[in-house]
Amino acid sequence: MPDQGKDSFGSVEDLMSYLSAIETTVEGEVNKIADSFDAMTDRISASLRSSLGNPSWLPKATKPRTPPPSATFAPPVGYLEASRDWVSRHRAITAAVVCFLGTGAFLIWRRRRLNRVKRRAKRGKNGQRTDVVILAGPPSAPLTRSLSLDLERRGFVVYIPVNSLWEERLIQAESKADIHPLHLDVTSPSSLSSTIRKVTALFNPSEVPKYPLCLVSLILLPQTPSPPEPRSIAQISADTWSDAFSIHLLAPFTLLQAFLPLIQSHKSSILFLSHTNTPSLSPPLHGEANVVARALDSYVSTLRKELAATQEINIAHFKLGALDDGSDRDALKMAVALRHDDRTASDSRLDSVPEKRNVRGSPLRELHLEVFDAIVGKRRGTVYVGRGSRTYDILGKVMPQGLAGWMLGLKTKKVQEKEQKEANVVTEGAQGSPGWERVDQISGEESA
To answer: Comparing 119 with 270, which gets the higher pLDDT?
Structure first.
């Protein structure tokens, strides 16, 4: 027997190897059977779940419930991340806020920077004033008076054209050594030519070698027509149109043409200052102001193309808004006092001068600084000064027709007829009616 086992297996090691191979084979087969059973069980459960998940014949209580979503924990968001997320979701609002704050910061910075710069006119070696400014505006106007005093304080010699003795006395009443009246009559060509020759001689170094003067700027202040009450085109007569054109357009144009050779020889700047709040909207019932303003714009544009491009002459058009001068009543008092020698008449006129309305505008210092910068060539083109000047100009270009009249209180025909009827009723009530007169008559007879 021992010899037989030894021959069949050879040795004990062979027997152990044979048994381990049998064990491995049996284990593999068992695992396969278990895997097959698990797979079959999963398929059966999945089939049952899908078939019993949404059956129409089972009640809702027997259906399996949907598992709740798993709770996710979000870490706290910092201020920077929250701000970035808000900006990405509200880009339009962010852009508007940035533009508003940026524009405001730029305007504040620019105003402070301009206020810090000292503005003074050039002087000669001996300290003598050499720069001359011709300020062509009504001497009784507060704006003319304010500009002349400011330019004189900054070192300019100011000449104001006048055409009457009263206007000359008005300028002399300021008691300023460097503010002089200049007699000019634009309606008389011979007188105008004679005055221009005398003015030109002042700037000729050969004739006046001791004090060489230089014309640095001509400032024109064409006034805007302001009738006592709004009126339509049909109510404006030909004489009214002629007067408006002669006073507000022809006079400054003639004056500029007379000084143009002197301006070209000295390379002087030309400044136009006009109030444009109301004409910018082109409202109805303001035909004179609208026509004069448009004519002035066209004239300045043409002049700029002819002189600024070819001869390097600075031409600036100041469109003025609401300015807080605060000197209307003082100027009118001075004008009345100089016009009338009779004390009683002056007092009566002074008492009738209306007080200035409480309309808040921009300070005149802004206009003074901008005018000086335009004189020395730092400001060119169109310059907006005063509250509402730029806003009204933009609204006049983009605003629909008819809206300007509504904004300015233009009344329709029905409203005017209603107010006229109410006024007639009040007038009749004030005068008394026949019924009440009859009652008064009866009561008087009874008392007698």
So the answer is: 270
CA pair distance 362, 387, nearest whole angstrom: 6
Dist. CA 359–CA 162, nearest whole Å? 30
CB 395 within 8 A of CB 276: no
Q: What tokens were used for 57?
A: 């014949």
Model confidence at 26, in pLDDT bands (50, 70, 90)?
Answer: confident
pLDDT digits (tens, 9 = 90+) for 397-419: 887 766 666 666 555 455 455 55
Alpha carbons 448 and 445: distance in angstroms, whole number:
5
pLDDT tens for 59-72 read: 666 666 777 777 66
The structure tokens 């011709």 sit at 134
Q: Which two tokens mark 51?
A: 């078939």
Q: What is the pTM of this model?
A: 0.65
